[in-house]
Amino acid sequence: MYFQEGLTLEFVHLEGLSMKYSGIAIARFSHSVTVRISRIPAYCIRTSPAHSSNRSMSSSATSRLLTADSDDWKPAFIYGTAWKKERTAELVKLAIQSGFREVDTAAQPRHYQEHLVGDALRDVYAESLVTREKMYLQTKYTTPAGQDPKNMPYDASAPLEDQIRTSVASSLKNLRPAQDSEEDSYIDCLLLHSPLQTVEQTLQAWAILESYVPKKIRSLGISNVSLPVLKAIHENSSIKPAVVQNRFYPQTRYDAPLRAFCGQHHISYQSFWTLTGNPHLLQSDPVSQLSHAVQVSRSVALYALVMDQGIVVLNGTTSAAHMEEDVSGIRKVRDWAQGHEKDWDGISRGFSNIIQSTHF
């Protein structure tokens, strides 16, 4: 993994991670501080600017786009598995074959088929397409309010702790790396699918999840969260949030204050509804300029500009052609940006101005 000049870095649990600067290896960590973390995606490395910058929202995704060597770099995509139904296993395999190495799911049979995600993963491991250590897997605990009452992964009448522990156990079983290797199962990040009814209940749920870190769960996150609730979790937890996953759309001003908080506290911000919620961005001048300059689709251009804001993008396409186009297209943008840094910087600044000046 590579990092641009001007970033200070805080590292946690780094067994097997190499650092390079300007292509020269400067450090390799042969053991971890507390526990072995087999893989840390670039966007989960904690980064903070060493000095002020006009582009305050840009962070680790920028370095991924512009400075990482081709052999190590991956687009900041997570494959989203919601609403895939019986096609879930097929589509997860296609995504991995197309170059995705991060997968998002949930213990919520109403919208996700977590067990089929696991089936697909075990298939690609058995076929030696990728190893578990090269994958990043995140899933979620969903409250009873978000579940189908007729098909739940736990007893809705049980105490909260029992609900969470039963849900986590089912996720560990579903996502186990081999049919008979449940003990080896772990989750890279477990998210609360939403805050609970009160901040106190949310903190209680968070504390229960903390008991799994770092062995069975490597990090924690939350989805559909407001800034006040995120601040409460950050201020009152032992294990700080590593991931926030929210809708990225103008009705929330693109979460500008919340993303600023994430940047200040080393929290990876993941976006969903990136295309669906932003038809106007697809028609914006920066997206049009980048699409024309690089000869990529407007969707790819928008993805690249969002990633440049330090955002990890959930991509749930069901088209094999679009999977390949998205991964190869982001690579194409990166290659172009490295050779046209002035043009890229102008387009990127224009896009940043649009999403930071949105008011409702």
Task: Describe it.
Residues 82-268 form the NADP-dependent oxidoreductase domain. It is globular, with a radius of gyration of 20 Å. Helix content is 38%, strand content 15%. The chain is built from twelve helices and twelve strands. An eight-stranded parallel barrel has the order 5-6-7-8-9-10-11-12, surrounded by five helices. The chain has a single domain (56-356), classed as NADP-dependent oxidoreductase domain (TIM Barrel), CATH 3.20.20.100. The protein has 360 residues and is of the alpha/beta class.
What tags apply to this protein structure?
38% helix, two-stranded antiparallel sheet, TIM Barrel, 360 residues, eight-stranded parallel beta barrel, 12 helices, 12 strands
Number of helices: 12
Strand content: 5-15%
CATH architecture: Alpha-Beta Barrel
Walk across the major sheet and give the strand order: 5-6-7-8-9-10-11-12
CATH fold category name: TIM Barrel
Q: Order of helices and strands, N to C?
A: EEEEHEHEHEHEHEHEHEHHHEHH
**How confident is the prediction overall: mean pLDDT?**
85
Q: What distance lies between the first and last C-alpha atoms, to the nearest angstrom? A: 39 Å
Overall radius of gyration: 20 Å
Tell me the quaternary state: single chain
CATH domain class name: Alpha Beta
Q: Tell me the domain tally.
A: 1
Catalogue the unreliable spans. Answer: 1-64
